[in-house]
Amino acid sequence: MSVAEVLDVRQPERRIRPSTRFLRSELLIIFGRRRNLAGLGVLAVVPIILAVSVRASSPGGGGGPDFLSAITGNGLFVAFAALAVELPLFLPLAVAAIAGDSVAGEANLGTLRYLLTIPAGRTRLLAVKFASIVIFALVAAGLVALVGVIMGLALFGGGDMTLLSGRSTSMGDGLWRLLLTTVYLGLQLSALGAVGLFISTLTEQPIGATIAIVLLNVMMFICDQISQLSWLHPWLLIHWWTAFGDFLRDPMAAENVTRGMITAAAYAGTFWLLAWARFSGKDVSS
Q: CA nearest 132: which of 205, 194, 212?
């Protein structure tokens, strides 16, 4: 037996284990930047303002949206109302800032070529970037819901809550429905983040990418309000965002939520592949 064979016997082959170091580093950068923390702070302030405003207003005003009029009956509705209020602009803007900065920000700082030296290259880079966007979207939606629950229970109390369908349910069931709502909206915003990831591969200016994502989001909202474009509505990502209201019915209606998840998955998969197709053949010079 040769020396090489002896060494081969004594030194078994090492198994390559998947590492999350790259993802952890990316999350540390995202949640360590002051501007991102400031954005999360703004998201957290909205449910506080909402709860205090409703508490300070005269009771029995009526005429408001279902979530707002139900706040005084159960504090959990502060979280649902805050998510509904922030859904058109604040939450998409927060996700757009992260998605727009994902690739364009690295190119703008001149660190993109360094990142591409990491094993697995461009595909792994895009996968980690998108995973960090998904995590940020879930954290952002969860933060709004958490602050809403704390403020709502502190100012209005808890107990059994009356659903939009008129049936009462327990506090625990209400929290479960809020968790489903938070995850649903977080995944919907992640699909918008995939669109932003693709746009971020088209430019080296993160601010420009962020603005483009926000404008695209606003355009979808405008198109969704035009009745003459009803044929287009089911294909718009934002059309299914308000389907989270079905979680507050008894029984929970699954049709719109399911279609919303399928649409979000289609957007996420399509635009991630477009980002990969664009980025895989892109000449990176910075």
A: 194
